[in-house]
Write a structure and sequence with these properties.
Distance between the termini: 49 Å
Radius of gyration: 16 Å
Strand order of the largest sheet: 1-2-3
Low-confidence stretches: none
Structural class: mainly alpha
Helix content: 40-55%
């Protein structure tokens, strides 16, 4: 039986809950013993949808904000990056399916065209650059 690759929408809505963990050993920029929040793609999507048009934020700022909202010291850098990509790809999948730009998650407000993840996105760097240009975020 052939393996069917999950769509970005399926990855987006995987049913996993968010959680808080205590880091037992140094992990990325997080010291041992610290509390770390692990969000979900849906939580990352909701965060991005709250970034107003014409405004930009960063993955690092999102991590700080999500940690603060959940009363922990850090937000996981690995899953945050993965979930950001899932949100962007799922939004672009919706766009390709006929949904208008105004109705998809505006991932270009957190991913700029120079970000390493922008080069990996199926929409391509030019799409990100154009959406940012339209909102006055990139020239």
């Amino acid at each position: 039986m052939a393996y069917k690759r999950k769509t970005w929408q399926e990855k987006m809505h995987n049913g996993q809950p968010d959680k808080v963990e205590v880091v037992d050993k140094q992990f990325a920029d997080i010291p041992a013993g610290a509390t770390m929040y692990i969000a979900t793609p849906e939580i990352v999507e909701a965060y991005i949808r709250n970034v107003p048009g014409g405004a930009h934020t960063t993955l690092q700022q999102m991590r700080k904000d999500l940690a603060a909202q959940n009363n922990v010291e850090y937000c996981c850098p690995i899953t945050s990056g993965i979930f950001l990509r899932i949100v962007a790809e799922a939004a672009f999948e919706e766009y390709l399916g006929g949904r208008s730009l105004k109705k998809i998650t505006p991932f270009w407000r957190i991913i700029d065209s120079k970000a390493p993840v922008a080069k990996k996105l199926s929409c391509g760097v030019d799409f990100v650059k154009e959406q940012r240009r339209q909102e006055g975020l990139e020239f």
